[in-house]
Design the sequence.
């Protein structure tokens, strides 16, 4: 997605340790018009898939997910992050490891809002090691709903998450694919 | 806002201790079309106020805030919640007490994204004791930006937050005002 790549080039910052900071438009300050365009693109890509629900993880996944839901006219569920839980009877839960923060979180979704007849699109802001997506896929297994695909705003293609998702036979659509952040420069994979 | 009140009546659940659960359409599962209508209403109410930025607090404030930003075409900043912080040089921080969870959090906004020339609309999903709004007003004092007003999706008018905001001379626009949750029933204030 050209507009997104240009915005990353203009307003993203490469930090040490292969970190791309995009808090100017995606995950702290958010550009609603760009999010709308992102939602439009995901909605086009999955227009023929009879999506019934969108799921994401709080907080940075919410803006792109809600804009996709607006255009597919389906509910959006954001999984909650918790340090740990004791009462989980009415919740689907999965563990998510954060490599950047070196912490484990549980993500949870209320059992009320997902059933085995749902056909779900997973949306997230970033894909690196894929821990958040694999947490949501673990919930998919528990709830027995179908995952129609995964939509990612920014994929760090040099990290293992993207390949691991594709290895499971799951459709992955990433709007910006980053080949490298070496020498403080953002290099994208060949254009879509 | 009629549509919102009807949705609260239909899909909200009153729990003990004056808790209104609206996780079917607002703060866990989210209805994007309703959020769009909410954003449209806030955008109408503040159309003549030359808003330059919208601020909210993660996570439940993000959906209504981003839909308002979409219609006012201004950036949305969501404050991050942290248990506590040591490095805060480049951050505005304020303390927020959660009465329901009996915990203290710090909320933070990067100093990069707010200046004294900004004219800011605060959006949040719920107003009860007003702690989140007062945290954002504390950041407004530090950053010296103007607060044009506060937009709330659901105000629990029987709790002190709404009056405390109005007592400071700040414009408050709440789309649903709940007079009482007594006996498990939602009673609204007189219609807008």
Sequence:
């Amino acid at each position: 997605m050209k507009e997104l790549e240009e915005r990353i080039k203009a307003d993203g910052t490469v930090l040490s340790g292969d970190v791309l900071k995009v808090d100017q438009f995606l995950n702290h300050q958010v550009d609603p018009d760009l999010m709308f365009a992102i939602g439009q693109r995901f909605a086009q890509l999955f227009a023929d898939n009879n999506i019934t629900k969108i799921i994401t993880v709080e907080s940075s996944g919410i803006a792109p997910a809600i804009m996709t839901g607006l255009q597919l006219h389906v509910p959006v569920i954001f999984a909650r992050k918790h340090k740990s839980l004791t009462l989980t009877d009415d919740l689907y839960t999965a563990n998510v490891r954060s490599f950047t923060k070196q912490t484990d979180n549980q993500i949870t979704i209320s059992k009320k809002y997902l059933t085995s007849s749902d056909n779900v699109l997973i949306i997230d802001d970033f894909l690196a090691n894929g821990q958040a997506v694999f947490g949501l896929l673990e919930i998919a297994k528990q709830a027995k709903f179908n995952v129609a695909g995964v939509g990612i705003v920014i994929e760090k293609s040099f990290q293992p998450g993207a390949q691991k998702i594709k290895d499971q036979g799951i459709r992955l659509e990433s709007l910006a694919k980053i080949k490298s952040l070496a020498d403080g420069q953002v290099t994208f994979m060949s254009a879509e």
